[in-house]
Amino acid sequence: MGSAGGADLDASAEDNDAWIGGMIRARRQKLDLTLQEVSEAAGISTGYLSLIERDKSTPTLTTLSRIAAALGVGIEHFVGKPQPADCITRAGNRPQFLMGSAQVRYERLGAVFPGSELSCFVLDIDPGYVSDEVSHPGEETFYILSGQLQLTLDGERMALNAGDSAHYDSTRLHGWSNPYDDPARVLWTGTIDLFGDRAEDQSNGPSAPARA
Predict the structure, then answer these.
(1) Which residue from 159, 163, 141 is spatially nearest to 149, judged by alpha carbons?
(2) What is the pTM of this model?
(3) Which domain does 64 fall in, by range?
(4) d(CA 81, CA 123)
(5) What CATH number is associated with residue 45?
(6) Over the stretch 46-102, which tens digit does the pLDDT of each residue have?
(7) CA gap 128, 139 in Å, rounded
(8) What pLDDT was estimated at residue 80?
(9) Do residues 184 and 123 both lie within one domain?
(10) Are 128 and 185 contained in the same domain?
(11) What is the largest CA-CA distance in the chain?
(12) Which of 17, 101, 129, 157 has the CA that lies 20 to 30 A from 55?
């Protein structure tokens, strides 16, 4: 998978031209795991994992990181891992990436340093995109730079316009979508360590679920 523009990516994905769904299915089959086993380990429904594998739905980075952990790899197995940015980033020269056939482009703003707790991205979200709804430890903030975004928190849908923001506990069930006619550009900040940059020891990696 190539860059969406700007800085080059660390080409660590197994097959940069493959869609995310096919790569997930290939990894699952290589481990001889069922859809149910992986979905249970990742905390998502079997039906939703099936949609992802058939590229009928695109997972958020949070969900992809859970699927990756369930399959015994890091998220960079499926997407080119953007290099951590310096404390200053320049417009047009930031690490960017797409997720296969995704309708969302990610532009990494955050730096990594000892004790850092935040991840920060600018998201460009195409019309029609609908994320999955998830919950996980931490907190998140959205700020709408342009366009509109629909945020769902605990089943309640809220429209956010340019200049609006949301800050919430990520243990609440949440998701977001762009049901509008124009693309949305969003500043997202959260405490989840999506790429394992803050992990103290990444040498062993996550373990795949064992078969009974």
Answers:
(1) 159
(2) 0.68
(3) 20-77
(4) 16
(5) 1.10.260.40
(6) 999 999 898 888 788 888 888 999 999 988 788 766 565 667 888 888 777 776 556
(7) 25
(8) 66
(9) yes
(10) yes
(11) 51
(12) 157
Assigned domain for 63 exists: yes
Q: How far apart are CA 136 and CA 58, in angstroms?
A: 18
Residue 114 reports pLDDT greater than 90: no
Predicted pLDDT at 192: 83
- Which residues does residue 40 pair with via DSSP β-bridges, in sequence order? none
Residue 161 lies in a domain: yes
Residue 184 sits in a domain of what CATH number? 2.60.120.10
Beta strands in the chain (DSSP E): 96-98, 104-108, 119-125, 139-146, 148-153, 156-161, 165-169, 174-177, 184-190
Retrieve residue 43's tokens: 């905390």
- How confident is the model over 120-155, as pLDDT tens digits? 999 999 999 888 888 888 999 999 999 999 999 999
Q: Is 186 contained in some domain?
A: yes
- Return all residues near 17 (Cβ < 8 A) that are at least 6 apart: 1
Number of structural domains the chain divides into: 2
Nearest 10 degrees: Cα torsion 57, 61, 66, 70: 70
Name, of 7-16, 87-96, 198-207, the range with top average pLDDT.
Answer: 87-96
Q: Find where tokens 């058939």 sit.
A: 54
